[in-house]
Amino acid sequence: MAIRQKCNKKRIALLNATLNLMNNQGFHDAPMSKIAKMAEVSPATIYIYFENKQDLINKLYLEVKAAFSAHAFKDSHEDLPVKKGFELIWYNIADFKLNHVEEATFLSQCDNTPMIDEESRREGLKHLQPLLNLWERGQKEEIIKPLSPYILYAYTIYPLAFLTLIQQRNFCQLDKEMLHNSFQAAWDSIKV
Amino acid sequence: MAIRQKCNKKRIALLNATLNLMNNQGFHDAPMSKIAKMAEVSPATIYIYFENKQDLINKLYLEVKAAFSAHAFKDSHEDLPVKKGFELIWYNIADFKLNHVEEATFLSQCDNTPMIDEESRREGLKHLQPLLNLWERGQKEEIIKPLSPYILYAYTIYPLAFLTLIQQRNFCQLDKEMLHNSFQAAWDSIKV
Amino acid sequence: MAIRQKCNKKRIALLNATLNLMNNQGFHDAPMSKIAKMAEVSPATIYIYFENKQDLINKLYLEVKAAFSAHAFKDSHEDLPVKKGFELIWYNIADFKLNHVEEATFLSQCDNTPMIDEESRREGLKHLQPLLNLWERGQKEEIIKPLSPYILYAYTIYPLAFLTLIQQRNFCQLDKEMLHNSFQAAWDSIKV
Amino acid sequence: MAIRQKCNKKRIALLNATLNLMNNQGFHDAPMSKIAKMAEVSPATIYIYFENKQDLINKLYLEVKAAFSAHAFKDSHEDLPVKKGFELIWYNIADFKLNHVEEATFLSQCDNTPMIDEESRREGLKHLQPLLNLWERGQKEEIIKPLSPYILYAYTIYPLAFLTLIQQRNFCQLDKEMLHNSFQAAWDSIKV
DNA sequence: CATGAATGAGCTTTCATTCAT
DNA sequence: TATGAATGAAAGCTCATTCAT
């Protein structure tokens, strides 16, 4: 039983390399050979940890999505008043989008191109449930407009992706005040 | 004018084929050979109309972007009151996003992946100027919040991309009322 | 319409190269790259003429099989007396096996390994019909033993494959007399 | 003796797995990893028992060939009259070919492709000596035609490979009568 | 002895692009 | 202008074999 063990270090190095290359060169210029080189393993080693390229990307997507959710709902609990709860989650997400630009950019890429399996996509959607619950509560309390959650998402969370984009492209740097104003805009759009 | 009418047909067929394949299979499954087949020309013919694949995509991006702008500012003029003007443009854009899904999806893909030249991207940005001017006017008249245009865009126009997305993936169908509510949310987020 | 035409020369060069390599190195050492090099074309060119490696081998099998049949039944017609007709065909086949060693060896390889599609194999079987008809006639005339055609084949034609084998491996050289004796053995085994 | 009993189990499992895969998928689809999996050992373990893949196949060939000979000459001894002796051996071989189809098929594959070392091939040939001796005796007694042993083999033993083939491919089932007729054909072809 | 991880070399196939007509 | 054939380079992936335990 004393054999060399499949070590997580390599798995993680591979996921990181993939994330990196996908963001900077795009899917079409992230060949397995480059990924392997960046992760400092042999190309063949990738296939010990992942079934094939699609699987590698799916798994990366799911893990980044999970990290995102963990971040989004940190310190959140169901006893918070609706606005407080929403504010917490919103700032958490903003923090992720602005400080984990690599991960956030990758998720945006995945959500806007057909590079992820439909199945993995569905899997990834589940993570948002707590936010949907919060909104429902807010609607019952008549604090939040009685709109489809798709619209609520579109006007409060989705805009943050754009802020990631412009920050990543160095169009402008988001300071504390802008962030505050940004939250205000989000809230104004959905509050009753 | 009207020289090489026949040839333009092929050019357009090629652009259409590219748009189609990029949306449905993604960049990595839109090889020149498939594009040629779908446009019913020889692969070699592509290189008569475009320098190379990158050029083909850049040109497509710019033409779709131009079509988008034309659509966005239809019937708009500088004498309209700010809210009226904004409403007109917003509905124009919504109409484009919801009824020209192919084009809108392609633009989203371009904006979220590194598949477009930095130069073409910059070129594409220029088109929004009239909207920026309108917002500036609104801010002078103290109708619109004094926020960075990036934020105004993020909360009024960018959300429409999400609506395209969910419609395209058949999560829900957007009716007139939802559209109205959606506009209201956009306006609420930026109006003073 | 004045385009470079898919030329049969390359197709044939590819088939020859494949035949050659398969015989001398075996399936597992006849990579597409070697086949291409031997045929003096680019590896990619193979895929203009054949769908994939399996298709290349199937097509080669069928063409060699067809050449074999053409050779086998040269000058044969239904008016010949049974023994004369059989003698003619037998010598034709012997001639093919001993003088087209490459082709004959390849066919033996195909018949004894699972490298040919079941479909192509069935297709290849059809060619023997005239010989089966001749045997049937011989059986009606009570010149040939009333045995299953499989057995008739096993004892008259199949042995020739062994003679190819020993000649190819230089165990002995078949002269006219041996050939005559060989035919006699074949005939003795099936004549009444 | 009887040392390393346990290990021999693995050796045999490996040889069996190889035989199995080679017959059903062919050389090119019998990778070491599959062989290991089928024998329920690690790929690395193969290299404890065999030098490399070629060695594994050579050894398998020689062992199967040895099993074949043992079977072929069971109950045979030099005091038997020539025809009786030949009949015994012939039926022994037929029995092997028809009831040990896996082994027989593998031997045919080896004899018709360049997958066995020339050396192992020569080694394998030695086993037939008793049959050659019998024929020589038969020729002295003027019971058997004075032909090269290659031809005698081609018309009496080699046809049995074809019968294996058609039985394996389910073209027809060989019953006792067909076997008897088959022997008669063999004998007719070489008897004076 | 036995192993699962690891790998460089090499496999089949596809690609963007060019050639020759 | 327009083409189908042709291609070198590179893609994703597998293989026989070795490593480290």
Strand and helix map with partners:
The structure is a homotetramer of 192-residue chains.
Chain A: H1 8-25, H2 32-39, H3 43-49, H4 53-72, H5 82-99, H6 101-112, H7 118-125, H8 129-140, H9 149-156, H10 158-168, H11 176-190
Helix pairs in contact in A: 1-2, 1-6, 2-3, 4-6, 4-7, 5-6, 5-8, 5-10, 6-10
Chain A binds a DNA duplex (21 and 21 nucleotides) through residues 1-7, 10, 31-33, 41-48, 52-53.
Gap from first CA to last CA of chain A: 64 Å
CATH topology of the largest domain in chain A: Tetracycline Repressor, domain 2
- Described by the principal axes of the CA atoms, the overall outline of chain A is elongated
How many independent structural domains of chain A? 2
Largest β-sheet summary of chain A: none
Secondary-structure-derived class of chain A: mainly alpha
β content of chain A, as a range? under 5%
What's this entry about, in short?
Helix content of chain A is 71%, strand content 0%.
Note the main attributes of this structure.
DNA-binding, Arc Repressor Mutant, subunit A, 192 residues, 2 domains, 11 helices, homotetramer, Tetracycline Repressor, domain 2
Task: Tell me about this structure.
The structure is a homotetramer of 192-residue chains. The first copy, chain A, has two domains: 1-50, Arc Repressor Mutant, subunit A (Orthogonal Bundle), CATH 1.10.10.60; 61-190, Orthogonal Bundle (Tetracycline Repressor, domain 2), CATH 1.10.357. The first copy, chain A, is mostly helical. The mean pLDDT of chain A is 93. In chain A, helix 4 (53-72) runs parallel beside helix 7 (118-125) and helix 6 (101-112) crosses helix 10 (158-168). Chain A starts with 7 loop residues before the first helix and ends with a helix. Chain A is built from eleven helices and no strands. At the A-B interface, helix 1, helix 6, helix 9, helix 10 and helix 11 of A face helix 1, helix 6, helix 9, helix 10 and helix 11 of B. Chain A binds a DNA duplex (21 and 21 nucleotides) through residues 1-7, 10, 31-33, 41-48, 52-53.
